[in-house]
């Protein structure tokens, strides 16, 4: 019989079966946990509103006053003195405003009894107009008679004893209880205001300490937490400032208009309008009731009422359609639906104060959702930015068998642009998603819907954007699908893009590119064939078809359009070993390479950008800065090195262009190669070989993720000399709009820049302009986020 120790050892070595929770059950438990947490938070917000409401109001006011405190601090005042000055200024302003409004209220109270006869006369007139036989008077009399008959039948002729009323008389309240009853409601808002005042003072005074504690509380990624706090503070501060400005710009014309109309108390009603408009949705309606009612009471006729209503309607239209879009500019990222839902939620939770605080609090939730991955669902629920990009939205409409709506999305995406740009930026991405889902997720029905929808879309685009040459023009280029329908659709997009560039191109259906069908391609007279493949490894198929094409048409030239091939297949040596002449990975690159093959002189045309219309004034402004004499070289080299370090690129240069030359006026390192230098030891190049001429020509930031894929840079002398694969240039724009040159980032490997990095590059370019001109240049406006046209609301970014 085994001993106890032996049994224990055996049990210790025996694996224990751990129950595995199914994934679906785990998701349910995870959702249940989140719902419990949400319920606890909502309950805490409701039960703790006595403390949380003053805190929320205080922090909201501190967000609005913080920029003013920072301004006084930068002037040299201490932090505590700046806070005291700001609070005294704000208190004095509101005190003076209260005295003015109080005097208006007293004057208006004294005048109100004189309007009683006017009100009574108008009410009597309205009553007389409402009298007379109505449409339903007969029916109402019939119903009343029936009710009396039924009551008489139920009660009969027996007399009913009258009901005796019992009156309960409460003992008289003591003077102390009476004082408490009257003072408690009055002291509650006073106490709340005092708490808010103390919180505002402490929040402004200990702003840095509060920020540090909040960062420590949130933990996690320090960069992400800092960005979230800065974004929330900036958005709320701008929102409050812009709302205050909008309300003032509404209140001043309203007060002056009421004064001209003759409505008493016009200063009071203008001030009330400015204050009440801080309350979303209902505030403007409430502020309009009082002047309209007073106009009704003052004027014996109706002209004053009509003029007052017309004034308010016009001001609302101008404010909502002109002033607010102009001042707010971009969106907070909140959708209209989320704003209404948030207003309802916070009003139900905290009452009228919650309605006032609903937008700032929801902005905070949105920012948290954008910066914390665990709460990203808040960004999805509250944000106005489409959660699906354009290609995904189009692809989803195709799956849903709704090509008409997909065409509407495409029309919005094209806008004032070109169809070729849409094909390059979105069209190929749609086909790539269809390719990825073809074997994994899509059913046969879905595949049929996608193919049919693509046919409808391409047919519609061809009809809406026809080529500029006659339909019977002999084709020069044939775009052939390599294997299946997705390759065929890509070939049709490329053919249409070539047609819009004036090149006679025709598509050929997919499948016929197999070896046995080569003779059916009908390529007689065609100079270039573009083979379209979405396969990641099309090497064997490409080699076979190229061999047969050249055997059947020896003089034909072949361009491979490999939308998803591995980088090794894109090398020039590899392409030539497959039997092709050129390779492209995008619509724009394919169009550029075909143009170069048909007209070799297009190389110089593509690399040389046209001079801007104000080129003479631009050159004059550049020469006036005297930067070309090398006086600011040290500072500009430092800025170039900083840009290279910040963006982690191989090197950065600062370029300026005069009438016929480009000057490298700043560089982060010694550039390789034998380059021409002038007397100031600056590198110079002819303008037709300038690396930033395209930026100067367009005045816009230019990013080339891979210079080998862009015809403008693939054979550029400086790009080749410096072995550059990545280029990004931001214009050096002066305060009067003259583009002097560009701040350029260059790297030896392909890469991309996100929206935040592009904004930072523009900001650093503005710093360069400040050094060149010696004047402060306003930072460029941040790029607008794409927002939903149906649910977006204009609020500050």
UniProtKB/TrEMBL annotation:
The chain crosses the membrane at residues 28-47, 53-73, 80-101, 179-205, 244-269, 275-298, 305-323, 343-368. GO terms for molecular function: cobalamin binding; metal ion binding. Keywords: Membrane, Transmembrane, Transmembrane helix. It holds the Pfam family AI-2E_transport. Gene3D superfamilies: 3.30.450.40. Residues 787-797 have a biased composition (Polar residues). Its main location: membrane. Residues 631-783 form the GAF domain. Residues 776-797 are annotated as: Disordered. InterPro entries: AI-2E-like (IPR002549), Cobalamin-bd_sf (IPR036724), GAF (IPR003018), GAF-like_dom_sf (IPR029016). It comes from the Bacteria. GO terms for cellular component: membrane. Belongs to the autoinducer-2 exporter (AI-2E) (TC 2.A.86) family. This is Putative PurR-regulated permease PerM.
